[in-house]
Write a structure and sequence with these properties.
Elements (H helix, E strand, L loop, with lengths): L1 H8 L3 H8 L11 H8 L4 H6 L19 H30 L3
Helix pairs in contact: 1-5
Length: 101
């Protein structure tokens, strides 16, 4: 459990490293347009499913106008805790159905 909590506090690295190295977006969080700029085309699967899902909190924040590192880091950490808690709850619920006492 402590390991998961430690990893959750490390989630802002996803915004800090690209910022420190002027790398643009966090690795793997590219739009179809960015992928096209990087490799020259948009793969068919990405083109097909790019509008199928919209994140509940765009850019991991409620206030996208505030781009300070502190603000973004706090929301990254909260997103990490929320994701870890949701994963734990779903895992416990699934295990209740699978494992018989």
């Amino acid at each position: 459990m402590i390991f998961i909590i430690a990893l959750t506090f490390l989630t802002p690295i996803g915004i800090l490293l690209p910022m420190w190295f002027n790398a643009g977006d966090a690795w793997g969080e590219w739009s179809a347009e960015t992928v096209k700029e990087l490799i020259g085309y948009v793969p068919q699967g990405l083109k097909k499913y790019t509008s199928a899902y919209a994140a509940p909190l765009s850019d991991y924040t409620i206030d996208s106008n505030n781009s300070s590192v502190k603000h973004q880091s706090v929301y990254y950490i909260l997103s990490g805790f929320f994701g870890a808690a949701l994963t734990l709850i779903v895992t416990i619920l699934i295990s209740k159905f699978i494992i018989k006492k």
